[in-house]
């Protein structure tokens, strides 16, 4: 299974990134590549690749409008490290691995690339990727109020006498807090029989395509209601409609997946209307009606007074949630300040963190931005990268303790596999091959090993382990001056 919409690859001309692009395209994904140098990208990736030119270190080049339609991202951008003594045009020394040369930063600083650049990239794509907790569209959350302008739209427009209103009840919500309240009196007199409240058109369409449906938090009364969503700014137009039942006297969450919304106009299905488009939501309407659609009647309808407290409407992501942001980091990011480490046994970047512009410190800060963003993520921390082929047996670990090497091709495959694995979601892990540095891993090109089922590795991962635990313990145990 592959995700709908575009997969963006940032850093697609680097050693891992170009392999990610290749793996995605071979698997049939729709791919767009964020690059700084279009000419270089065309040369490396081919003339037909979909490119967007931008630089994560320059916020002005990352207008979120340029990333509409992107549903997932694999970020392989990294600060450039190279040999002090220089390198060959094809970066032969670099490709051997940092273990084999004296390194220095080439170009932009780690702070600019790994931290500020990460902040810029997240801000550019977060609206397209969505948030695990969903997107609040109306109501009360964390002592904040997302306001919509609701107005009554009742059967009086057809000669009826029903009436309704919308108001904020300051103490009618759960736990005595505030809630919105849809209330009224419905009557079938004069061939009427419905009441509703409708919002004004939004100032700009809501793009909810990263999500899977609408969730209403409300206190039911045993009746069946309708949620009507419009994707056009016109007033008298098709409304995409879903009916929902409520439980009397209970606060409940009602989830309405996007596919259940049917195109309805004046209580009749519109068979030739396009399907509901969550990328262009313009208004909401809540309705209590005698009529469902196409001549069917509401079995819970009864005349008289009603009240429906609605504390929130949000767009939600359906479980199981898979990663939207896959990031290629680095093993060792928590080690420079870790107590008790024998630095002589650590990779060069750990020993030379300060000399390399605090490269690992800022990589860790960039990781933290991802974890704190609310976007479903996977953070892959490879050990030393090599040009060897994929196929060696692997070790996945957590806590940032292992050293070793791993093929860039293998890392690319892991990243692509993570896109569709709920087991990889919101996980941080290190990975290396079982082959030691002293041995070269080769394969028979005529009979390569089959691609691994990476899900079996992802299933072993646990939540909340980053390697920062040792640093946090150190802070807690350090004496505080008074």
Automatic annotation (TrEMBL):
Q: Which residues form the NADH:ubiquinone oxidoreductase intermediate-associated protein domain?
A: 143-309
Q: Which InterPro entries match?
A: Galactose-bd-like_sf (IPR008979), NAD(P)-bd_dom (IPR016040), NAD(P)-bd_dom_sf (IPR036291), NADH-UbQ_OxRdtase-assoc_prot30 (IPR013857), NmrA-like (IPR008030)
Gene3D superfamilies in the cross-refs: NAD(P)-binding Rossmann-like Domain
State the superkingdom. Answer: Eukaryota
Among the Pfam families in the record, one is NAD_binding_10
Q: Where is the NmrA-like domain?
A: 5-77
Q: Which residue intervals define the domain NAD(P)-binding in the entry?
A: 316-422
Protein name stated in the entry:
Uncharacterized protein
Record organism: Kalanchoe fedtschenkoi
Kindly list the organism's lineage. Eukaryota, Viridiplantae, Streptophyta, Embryophyta, Tracheophyta
């Amino acid at each position: 299974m592959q995700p709908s919409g575009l997969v963006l690859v940032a850093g697609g001309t680097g050693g891992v990134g170009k392999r990610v692009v290749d793996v995605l395209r071979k698997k049939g994904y729709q791919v767009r590549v964020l690059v700084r140098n279009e000419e270089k990208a065309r040369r490396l990736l081919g003339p037909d690749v979909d490119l967007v030119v931008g630089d994560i270190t320059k916020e002005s080049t990352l207008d979120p409008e340029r990333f509409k339609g992107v549903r997932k991202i694999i970020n392989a951008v990294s600060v450039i490290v190279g040999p002090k003594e220089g390198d060959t045009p094809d970066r032969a020394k670099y490709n051997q691995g940092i273990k084999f040369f004296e390194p220095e930063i080439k170009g932009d600083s780690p702070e600019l690339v790994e931290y500020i650049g990460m902040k810029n990239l997240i801000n550019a794509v977060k609206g397209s990727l969505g948030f695990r907790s969903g997107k609040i569209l109306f109501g009360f959350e964390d002592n904040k109020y997302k306001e919509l302008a609701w107005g009554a739209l009742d059967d009086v427009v057809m000669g009826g006498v029903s009436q309704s209103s919308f108001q904020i009840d300051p103490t009618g919500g759960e736990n005595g807090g505030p809630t919105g309240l849809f209330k009224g009196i419905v009557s079938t007199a004069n061939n009427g029989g419905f009441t509703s409240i409708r919002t004004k058109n939004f100032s700009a369409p809501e793009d909810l395509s990263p999500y899977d449906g609408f969730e209403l938090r409300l206190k039911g009364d045993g009746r069946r209601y309708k949620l009507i969503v419009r994707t056009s700014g016109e007033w008298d137009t098709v409304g995409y409609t879903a009916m929902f039942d409520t439980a009397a006297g209970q606060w409940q969450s009602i989830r309405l997946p996007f596919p259940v919304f049917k195109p309805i106009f004046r209580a009749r299905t519109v068979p030739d209307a396009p399907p509901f488009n969550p990328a262009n939501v313009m208004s909401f309407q809540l309705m209590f009606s005698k009529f469902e659609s196409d001549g069917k009647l509401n079995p819970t309808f009864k005349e008289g007074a009603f009240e429906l407290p609605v504390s929130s409407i949000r767009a939600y992501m359906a479980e199981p949630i898979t990663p939207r942001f896959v990031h290629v980091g680095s093993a060792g990011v928590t080690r420079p300040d870790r107590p008790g480490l024998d630095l002589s046994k650590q990779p060069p970047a750990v020993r030379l963190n300060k000399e390399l512009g605090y490269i690992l410190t800022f990589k860790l800060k960039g990781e933290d931005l991802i974890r704190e963003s609310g976007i479903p993520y996977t953070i892959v921390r490879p050990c030393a990268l090599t040009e060897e082929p994929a196929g060696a047996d692997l070790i996945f670990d957590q806590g940032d303790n292992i050293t070793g090497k791993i093929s860039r091709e293998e890392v690319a495959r892991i990243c692509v596999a993570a896109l569709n694995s709920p087991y990889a979601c919101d996980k941080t892990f290190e990975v290396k091959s079982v082959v030691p540095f002293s041995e070269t891993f080769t394969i028979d090109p005529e009979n390569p090993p089959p691609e691994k089922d990476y899900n079996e590795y992802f299933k072993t991962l646990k939540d909340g382990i980053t390697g920062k635990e040792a640093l946090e313990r150190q802070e807690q145990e350090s004496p505080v001056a008074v």
